[in-house]
Amino acid sequence: MSTETPAYPALKDMFDFARFEHIADQTAAVWPGFERTRFIALAMENLDDLGIMQRMRQTATSLHATLPDDYGQALAVLYDLAPRIGHTFVGISLSEYVALYGQNDFDRSMAALRHLTQFGSAEFAIRHFLLTDLDRTLAVIRDWAEDDNEHVRRLASEGARPRLPWSFQLKELIADPSRAMPVLERLKADPSLYVRKSVANHLNDISKDHPAWLVNKLANWNQTVLETRWIVRQALRTLVKNGGQRALALIGSTGKAQARVESFTVTPDRVKFGDRITIAARLTSTSSEPQRLVVDYAVFYVKKGEKPSRKVFKLKELDLAPGAATDLTISQTIRDFTTRKHYPGWHRVELLVNGETMAESGFDLEV
Q1: pLDDT in tens, 117-145
Q2: H/E/C letters for each residue in the chain?
């Protein structure tokens, strides 16, 4: 089994004694009355038992216990502290402070999140306000979507994602995605890749609950604008991987593939954890017309005591001339992730062309 250090514990360990000493030193520098020793003691409490998000929240609650009781005075300290934190993820704890203690001061809290997100994303914090006062908060982030700062514009999209990872779902936006769509409309040609990635992820969230609605909406977007075209292609990735024909057509696929698979292999066919597999295919066109093909592959991962879990990966998008052939290859290391644990057994691998399974192979994972 893989002995590589998982990404999750490494991220969690950003909040450690040295980090809390740094935060304490920087807070004391901007507010001399800060209870440095008490803050570190509170932040370190039961730290080994806490995950990344719990540590982030405990940082916020420890700051609350040692900053001025007056919310406005505390915000002034956070404003000064934010550029001194030195790590954007750790900076998220400052926005968490606003989420926890600023619910009764909406206007100042919105201004604080707009400022603090430039030093550590407020995407988790803004969701607490969307949850308790959706319409009022949406009205604010619609204005943020036109802000000069890309961090603020990204927050408008990312914070309102219906299914943001590491946070609670926004059920009202899952049920009715049109309520946040004005934000995305304002960002659909954003010059910042950082913002466009968020818009695409937000739309991909919507695709999981309202696929037809989303395709109808994106069909009206002007894909001659390169930034918009990029967003549309990324937003439809789940529907494309699942073989959605309307989604495939929207990114330029020419429908059912007219091609034959000359070969499809996974090598080696017997591997151990940490080994690398290579997936190779050769396709030949059987059409008299040029084709736009979207080629993916699906791995059926063995699950302990459960049915295999199918995950689709991108291989390549290509234009194939009449009668032409193309060779495709990709490699993948078999190792555990925080989101996927491997188990021994036969792993089926399928070749998908324009959403249709056209060949299969596989590999045997040994202990």
Answers
A1: 999 999 999 999 999 999 999 999 999 99
A2: CCCCCCHHHHHHCCCCHHHHHHHHHHHHHHCCCCCHHHHHHHHHCCHHHCCHHHHHHHHHHHHHHHCCCCHHHHHHHHHHHHHHCCCHHHHHHHHHHHHHHCCCCHHHHHHHHHHHCCCCCCCCHHHHHHHHCHHHHHHHHHHHCCCCCHHHHHHHHHCCCCCCCCCCCCHHHHHCHHHCHHHHHHHCCCCCHHHHHHHHHHHHHHHCCCHHHHHHHHCCCCCCCHHHHHHHHHHCHHHHHCCCHHHHHHCCCCCCCCEEEEEEEEECCEEECCCEEEEEEEEEECCCCCEEEEEEEEEEEEECCEEEEEEEEEEEEEEECCCCEEEEEEEEECCCCCCCCCCCEEEEEEEEECCEEEEEEEEEEEC
Average pLDDT over residues 265-285: 95
- Sheet with 259-267, strands from edge to edge, namely 259-267, 276-285, 325-333
Do 180 and 288 belong to one domain? no
Rounded to two decimals, the pTM is 0.84
Tell whether 34 and 133 lie within a shared domain. Answer: yes
**The total number of structural domains that make up the chain:** 2
Please report the pLDDT score of residue 4 as a whole number: 42
Q: Give the confidence band of 11 by pLDDT, cuts at 50, 70, 90.
A: confident
Domain hosting residue 305, numbered range: 259-366
Contacts of 174 (CB under 8 A, 6+ apart): 162, 163, 209
Domain boundary among 195, 213, 238: 195
With contact defined as beta carbons under 8 Å apart, do 40 and 24 qualify?
yes
